Amino acid sequence: MSPLVLPKTRWLGTALMAAVLLVIGLYGYSRTIDLVRGPQIEILSPVTGTTYSKEMVTVTGQVQHIAKIYLNDNQIFTDDEGFFREPLLLLPGYNILTLKAEDLFGRQITKQIKLVYQS
């Protein structure tokens, strides 16, 4: 028998083992991706630098890989897909809104929105 030709049962076992290792590797990757990426915040509205004539603004966005999220140090909540929607009263003049998210590993990310309210 030539050393380059494997019997069918040996080839099948090797292919099966490779498939099992691939599935284990993909599962491990999917479970550790949160550790690699860390928390993420995407602010959909309002846009920083905007001037408002109404005192009520709704902060919306989406987060990924988080355990907790705060708007101006008050915990807010997301839906199952990571979207949040939080109404907020602006003070007259210059306002800085701070979003802070934390993941399961304690890593944090902070984003700010700067707005002006002119009544």
Automatic annotation (TrEMBL):
Keywords for the protein's UniProt record, in alphabetical order: Membrane, Transmembrane, Transmembrane helix
Protein source organism: Candidatus Vogelbacteria bacterium RIFOXYD1_FULL_46_19
Superkingdom in the source lineage: Bacteria
Q: Give the transmembrane ranges.
A: 12-29
Protein name, entry field: Bacterial Ig domain-containing protein
